Amino acid sequence: MGLCGDSLVKERATGVRPDEGSKTPMASDSAERVLFISDAHLGAADPEREARKEDLIRFLDSLQPARDRLVVVGDLFDFWFEYRYVVPGRYFRILARLARLVEKGMRVDYVPGNHDFWVRDFLPEKLGVQVHRPSLETRVLGQRLFVIHGDGLRRDDYGYRFLKKVLQNPINIALFRWLHPDLAFGLAHTFAELSRKQKGEPYQEVDDSDYIDFGQQKLREGFDLVVLAHTHKARLLKLEGGVFLNPGEWLEGYTFGELRGGLVSLKRWFVTGEKAGSETLATVELGEAGSGELARL
């Protein structure tokens, strides 16, 4: 099912789309707290899994635009492709919530992942969401942040890196656009579901040492906090020179990251009847020396 993009939300005058390793200043950012979510894979074929988007809506509704900043670390959608006049109807409520948060003054950043790297103009031009490709580098709350989804960082992932180049080729994107949206999204969700069944459920990268090594490298370059996702494995690690955070995944674990002041926390969202909130799984103070694993779920 498709809905006209112009009827989804009011078009915003600002269509700025930071790109190519975006570096954004702190000047206009008055956030007191930064939230990191990733790997919700909205639109997955499983009806039970789809029902969990309601929990994400409640999470977004709990945010306070005057003091919060949201960073989506990729794969919010199980598949995303932009047609000129059509957007997927199944994402309508989430997109509307993001638009509402932006209109109320909250900054929302989006770093595409391997399921939504075809994100282009719709999010920044229609919703005001800042898209950063392939990474976000910024200073907020006095800390230097480096954020990237992380797909393709594993040293032996040669096949995926080749496939990504093929899928991001402008000619192939133009050819794919000729497919009817119902057919295109149907095929994409089918292949994604087959991939999950092949990898097993719940999916987690077995060995994420290459991702942690990459994070350590970025910390040595002067960043205070490095945020990666992709592996679906929640992590909060003290490394040399800073902190490594993987917010885990909303798909099964409902985990997310939080930066508040000089503290980085790994949290889990929960819904019990009419009650919803978050619990803290682990916290580390930025600037602490030493190394070691604080959380692994």
Describe this structure in words.
This protein has 297 residues and is α/β, with parallel strands linked by helices. α3 runs parallel beside α4. The chain has one domain: Purple Acid Phosphatase, chain A, domain 2. It is built from nine helices and 16 strands. A seven-stranded mixed β-sheet has the order 2-8-9-10-12-11-16, with helices on one face. A seven-stranded mixed β-sheet has the order 7-6-4-3-13-14-15. Strands 1-5 form a two-stranded antiparallel sheet.
Please provide a brief summary of the model:
The chain has nine helices and 16 strands.
> Which superfamily, in CATH terms, is the homologous superfamily?
Metallo-dependent phosphatases
Helix fraction, binned, reads 25-40%
SSE arrangement, N to C: EHEEHHEEHEHEEEHHHHEEEEEEE
The CATH class designation is Alpha Beta
> CATH topology, anyone?
Purple Acid Phosphatase, chain A, domain 2
Whole-angstrom Rg: 18 Å
The portion of residues forming beta strands comes to 25-35%
What do the pLDDT scores average to?
Answer: 79
Number of strands: 16
- Number of discrete helical segments: 9
